[in-house]
Amino acid sequence: MHVDLRTWTREISQGISSRDSRAIMNAVRGAHNGFFFSVTSRRPFGTNVFDRDWDLLVVLDACRVDAMREVAPEFDFIDSVDSIWSVGSASHEWLCKTFTTDHLDTIRETAFVSTNPHVPRTFREGEFPPGTYSIPLMLADWKVVHGDEFLTLRHIHRHDYEDCFASIPADLVTDHAIQVGRAHDFGRMVVHYFQPHRPYISAAHAEDRPVTDLEDHPWDALRAKTATKQEVWELYLENLRYALRSVERLLDNVDADTVAITADHGDLFGEFGLYGHPEGFVHPNLKKVPWVVTNATDTHENDPSVDVQRQELEVDVEGRLRDLGYL
Asked: What's the predicted TM-score (pTM) here?
């Protein structure tokens, strides 16, 4: 993020003179989000999950309500799919508006297991939205906790399929969550999976192969019309099913009277000509997320072995963000 009126003015002028629609759009986003985050960093629009009742919160990244409702009949632990309005339309925004000092006492009793690449830059480096475009003016007031305030914070960023895809396999997240759930006496636990967010790794993971270009860059394919929305939607649903199968294993290996399954934000599939999940954008398919209530009982069917030290090695945050399309 670069807050500088002169830079922003120069960039939008250059975009207009060169008829560069992407540059113009970034400038418009900068102007909008400078104002938007000045307001919503103080008064977020949406429901903070810490204001809801749960012992275990499962967060699926970029999961739409209609997608969850489509696959729900396939999973016995999903009786019904309600919804809430998220505080963010992108992960970084959601993290910064969820884990705030207003909920500090609860966060100090919370174990957080996450794969999202924004976690270290948010809770260790103190970087907050907006993203990598210029902002003409912003007066945001972020109240984000530091990572040391969590009962435990585990960021998973290394895995055995790095030559095939950048995102973390769901089963690895479940393994770590089971280990954390059994090792710590926590008040609450949050487990943040990366799926169904692209890349769509479901088939690649099963076949131990690299993701295809379509699985990795579905939005490019939709813009270029080399794939249909239905083709991409089916890949997205398979990624969601893949995540939920792993969530099902988690529910059989931790104890929690009340489990809530939700998302940090949704995804756009061409609405208003937009794809993915731009931050600071208020659209129902982005801001409205699933809310599924169930429970969990530890049957000790699994006793996963995880390498915690591997995850504590230094992470290339910018590299991961770039690989996953954030930069």
From this structure: 0.93
